[in-house]
Amino acid sequence: MARSEWSFKSAVELSAALNAKKVSAVELTQDAIGRIERHDGKINAICVQDFDRALGVAREADVALARGERKPLLGLPVMIKESFNIAGLPTTWGFVPQKDFRPVEDALPVARIKEAGGVILGKTNVPVGLSDWQSYNDIYGTTNNPYDLGRTPGGSSGGSSAALAAGYCALATGSDIGGSLRVPAFHCGIFAHKPTINLCPARGETPPPFPALPREGDLAVIGPMARSAADLALLLDVMAGPDPLEAGVAYKLDLPVARHQSLRDFRVLVIDSHPLLPADRDVRGAIDKLATDLAKAGVTVARESALLPDFAETSRLYMRMLLGFLGAFFLPEELADSRAQASQLSPEDRSLGAERLRGTIASHRAWVLDAGRRAGLRAQWRALFNSFDAVICPIMPTPAFPHDHLPEQDLRRISIDGTDYPYSDQLAWPGIATLPGLPATAVPLGLSKDGLPLGGQIVGPWLEDRTPLKLAELIEREFGGFVPPKMFDD
């Protein structure tokens, strides 16, 4: 069967086609359903289908379009990460005991997507507890990378990234505390945006069976995923803005415009090294090529700056604060084991693994002191962004790696140019933007010699999300972006 002309179009292009009556919302929905039925037996990105309801919404969208109604996402096919509540559909986070949990209310971001006219086709697969860069669980099985079925699509938003790369939808949602938006975007060659902390309210992206209450994330965010940079801004504008139950009582969102509209006006700092975790030659090569291309295009490019925070110290701080949060949810026996291991640590052990252990059992006093250090880090980034508009660096040290489902993540290893490193140390790269809460846009940068997606992240100033998004859009326009996987040439 010939591939539909609409399968890999951007959301912006599809919206224009819908408004011009070149295609209907029902046709786009049927096209997406057909692709899922043909291909998802191999990929396993879609863990919960909601096709009948989607077709009904698409029919309503066509009626609205016919009477001239315009909404940001009207008639566009959308996928939702499994961790977001959709009324009547399972929300499990991969936890087998919660396989029958069905919320009665949509998550706030889902409600906003529906209000904007999005046609939600279903939910995408995740790892257990959203706590891996692979997407597998005992309820829904393993999601594979569309570029190589033997490799991870990333996690924890791996189902969403694989769905986008496979042409199942125009837009998808994800979440991120350890790179869970950016890592799967990198591994599947798409775009994603980690917003400034708390820009997008996450009420209803809640582990079952807990109630969906308004909350401020300490490190975690939700955000958009797409095949095109402009589409990220489209979905971000739908998802962003204060929760009406709390901050929205008094506050409205007014994001500043991008600092520049022309590529040559940007001042960019490009970094491809980390003192504790190198990037491999393929990733460095992609970042270095981008730096060269940007310089040729007239961008002011620097490769080092005394203003840049110390990545070694900030990565250690991030490990402690991240595990200070995650450790709160450890089972008693896991916490006891962590305490026993931490008691054996030497004070001189500054490895990232040691810092994770320290964070797991940290006192509230220790956490408060680390939060003060994080405030100092934010001040450093503010100073840096007086001289630069964006920092470009790797998202992960290697392209997508082979599936590795060894139960103990501490025993897994990642090979970087032939040298093995602890699997969880990969947190160092996404943590660069996560710890200070900065916006970061994942951009694809072509394929490796092995045909695997490469990419990088554009870190921007606090609440200036439109600046890295605009730079990503300009990079895509000038140098190219998403490259469809070959297995979907049909």
UniProtKB/TrEMBL annotation:
One Pfam family it belongs to: Amidase
Alphabetized SUPFAM superfamilies for the sequence: Amidase signature (AS) enzymes
Gene Ontology cellular-component annotations: endomembrane system
Signal peptide location: none
Segments forming domain Amidase: 27-467
Protein name (database record): Amidase
Natural source organism: Bradyrhizobium huanghuaihaiense
